[in-house]
Here is the input.
Amino acid sequence: MCGIFGVINEKIEKELAEQCVNRIRHRGPDGCGLWQEGGITLGHRRLAILDLSANGSQPMAYADGRYMLVFNGEIYNFIEIRRELEQKGYRFRSETDSEVVLASYMEWGEKCLDRFNGMWAFAIWDRNEKRMFLSRDRFGVKPLYYTKLQHKNAIAFGSEMKALLPLMKEVKPNRELVTDPGRTVFYESTDACVIEGISRIPAGSYAYIDESGMRITRWWNTLDHLVQVPDRYEEQVELMRELFLDACKLRMRSDVTIGTALSGGLDSSATICAMAHLARNDSDVRMNEDWQHAYVAVFPGTTMDESAYAKKVTDYLGINSTFVEIDPKKAIGMLDTYIYMFEDVYLTSPIPMMMLYHALRSDGTLVTIDGHGADELFGGYTFDFIHALRDAGSRQERELILTAYTDSFPQDDSNIALASRAKSSVYLHYLKRELKDRLNRKKEDYKTVRAAADPRYGQLDTLNKILYASSHETILPTLLRNYDRYSMASGIEIRMPFMDYRIVELAMSLGWRSKLHGGYSKSIIRDAMAPYMPKDIAYRKTKIGFNTPIVEWMKGPLKEYFEDTIRSGEFLSCDLIDPKKTMEQVTRVITDSSATFAMGEQAWSSLYPYLWERAFVKNQY
Here is the structure.
């Protein structure tokens, strides 16, 4: 995993190119490369994961220098593809997946993308055809931004927006996105960005750029790849188990130490337990045996602390846990830097995630295999799977869904508990919210599901329609971006077995009953992985998630910080926020003893545009 940068159709000075590349040096602390020829610039910051020698340096040449590559990501099945290419007569000088990408493109052109199982954003310059090929993985795990330059059809691209800013005349916020918290999870799957003049190559797309301009083509649509699943639930569980173990096996290929960011929840616990099972019972030529590293974020005395559950998992496996205490007072001085690294707007503080992945880097663990994607694909969020009520064909099925919903919340008086656990109350609240959402739909056209225009989307059940939008258009694209930033700020690579395209295909092909079987959310994951996990973790219903305990922080250790912030002259003069309204929201969280997590999230979202402008736009970090 690395950072890439490039320019086509415009010659730029070497010093300027180096400035752009070094804006993303955090993504690749192990090396830097720059190649220029005429109006072409390719730059690279290397995070060495496979073949740590100089043979893996980039920009990488192939076929006697015809092709030049800059690549960010991993092709997990590169060994199998390499064998196929060797049988066709291709030869390799490195042990990298990068060189396999080059040979694959030479052999199959853009059709090579269909063969890749991985995450990527890369650019290949063909010196004979005078044409640049850009590609992004199926689900946009790896980012790729671009901006148009002054010369005709000149384009600059990079892994992060900050790499493009030195080439732009001015840096202006996209006010529509930045000032409306309601849009926070709705823009990442579009080409709109928080800086005017910057766009993104969409997930599952490739582009050709030459002197005549850029042409973007969508090469992947999950709805084209729905699969036939077994009728019996037990057989579906077996299939899920087989695919998940293989996805983890491929992602354990590494020449550096690997570990897991472990929360104690189902998804991360299933991941590390799968790794343990594979290490004991399987083998792979590049599987790293140094995997026994679990990193647990600890929030002492808050509702977000799940460290006790994480310890149950590591005790079960017989491995050590590294507990990373998230102390906001130690991190608040870094907040502006974190926001600059993060680049985008979001509804929670980046402090816990940035601190956790920094701890991995400090400990020498450079790759982490995490559980991201399961909630959005298999129905882990209560606000998603509650919609299965529209699929329920009987009172018994409605009861099953409502049980899964109420059991997901802690049975206490914490700020994340339900106000009422009565199922009739939950059902009535759902119906009211549905009505409100339908009435507001015309006013909020940005919430329209773009896939709804596809007839195959219309054939999905209600829950899968919700999950398709969540995993392809709203929440998951946003979280994939977020975790790229959280981890790469410290030069850490996250691999996500639940994002294996075969698992995504299966998830979107399973009916709703396979995801809520027996009154459990994500039931097929639980039943598939229970043989390898502590049973009370596999079937634990309460869901907390990896979030910031913002209410406790605003009332306690960061109270002074927030009070000073909302009284500052710079805050009061910021035109990206409503200072009076924001001040009231922050003050209420600080002073109201019954402030909920939702109130804290809302106050942070209102304040964030000011913090973002200060750190990212004005570079005051």
In short: The two ends are 25 Å apart (CA to CA). The chain has a mean pLDDT of 94.
